[in-house]
């Protein structure tokens, strides 16, 4: 009995040592990634937060200003206009691709099966694989004063609507937003089509048996089943809108 209790106590004492050794091994595996993440993400974020409290041109002596820079951002009309432009781009880059993508995905599900559906998805996804700089250059040619867009308007009798779209103060931002929506439409459509394919077909059959219309199917079956995919689409498109330097 004494021998057995001695072994039990030895095992109990060894467990904390094993647990501690396992934690140490886990930290050794994590350390390289944590080191790089700290060096290239956490430290730059901290330095950015610190620099935001200074008045500094990057060369001379820095002056501590506290939260004055943030108050300037929230009260300076030009800076507020810039923030407003960024939010407008978010609407163009997110609302249009997701909204149109939902409609296109529903059409593909109901009317374009087999080879036609594959062809439609391929054509829609092509803008996503084109370098954004190249897409921006191509669209700048099409939206020029003598570009394809104005020529088409002229051909259908709407030449009075033609303009240098990217040089017009009222239409430059919407023009860039439409380009971004065109680029992201394929990605959103692919994600949504994939999400629809995962919805249980019996739900649509049950909705039809209950006399549901196409709109009822869309709002009560398709949309609830695409919550995760829509969330991914919105996240990706918002990030693209806030990082749209190349297209601009």
Describe the structure.
This protein has helices spanning 2-51, 68-75, 77-111, 114-129, 132-142, 148-155, 172-197, 201-209, 214-225, 227-242, and strands at residues 54-55, 63-64. The protein has 248 residues and is an all-alpha fold. The protein folds into two domains: 2-70, no CATH class; 77-242, MetI-like (MetI-like fold, Orthogonal Bundle). Strands 1-2 form a two-stranded antiparallel sheet. Helix 3 runs antiparallel to helix 10 (227-242), helix 4 (114-129) packs across helix 7 and helix 7 runs antiparallel to helix 10. The longest helix is centred in the first third of the chain and has 50 residues, at 2-51.
Fraction in helix: over 70%
Radius of gyration equals 28 Å
The neighbouring-strand order within the major sheet is 1-2
Mean pLDDT: 82
Q: What CATH architecture of the largest domain do you see?
A: Orthogonal Bundle
User: Which regions contain 5 or more consecutive residues with pLDDT less than 50?
Assistant: none
What structural class do the secondary elements suggest? mainly alpha
SSE pattern, N- to C-terminal: HEEHHHHHHHHH
What is the count of structural domains? 2
Can I get a quick summary?
The protein has 248 residues and is mainly α. It has helices spanning 2-51, 68-75, 77-111, 114-129, 132-142, 148-155, 172-197, 201-209, 214-225, 227-242, and strands spanning 54-55, 63-64. The protein has a two-stranded antiparallel ribbon with strand order 1-2.
């Amino acid at each position: 009995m004494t021998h057995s209790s001695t072994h039990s106590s030895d095992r109990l004492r060894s467990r904390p040592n094993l647990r501690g050794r396992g934690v140490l091994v886990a930290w050794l595996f994590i350390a390289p990634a944590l080191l790089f993440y700290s060096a290239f993400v956490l430290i730059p974020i901290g330095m950015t937060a610190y620099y935001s409290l200074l008045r500094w041109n990057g060369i001379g002596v820095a002056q501590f200003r506290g939260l004055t820079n943030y108050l300037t951002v929230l009260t300076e009309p030009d800076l507020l206009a810039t923030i407003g432009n960024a939010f407008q781009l978010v609407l163009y880059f997110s609302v249009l691709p997701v909204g149109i993508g939902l409609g296109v995905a529903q059409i593909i599900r109901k009317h374009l099966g087999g080879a036609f559906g594959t062809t439609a998805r391929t054509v829609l996804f092509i803008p996503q694989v084109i370098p954004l700089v190249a897409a921006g250059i191509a669209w700048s040619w099409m939206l020029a004063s003598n570009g394809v867009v104005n020529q088409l308007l002229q051909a259908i009798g709407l030449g009075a609507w033609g303009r240098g779209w990217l040089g017009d103060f009222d239409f430059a931002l919407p023009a860039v937003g439409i380009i971004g929506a065109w680029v992201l439409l394929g990605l959103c459509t692919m994600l949504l089509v994939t999400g629809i394919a995962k919805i249980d077909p019996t739900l649509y059959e049950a909705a039809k048996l209950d006399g549901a219309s196409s709109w009822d199917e869309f709002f009560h079956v398709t949309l609830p089943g695409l919550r995760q995919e829509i969330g991914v689409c919105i996240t990706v498109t918002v990030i693209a809108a806030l990082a749209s330097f190349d297209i601009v």
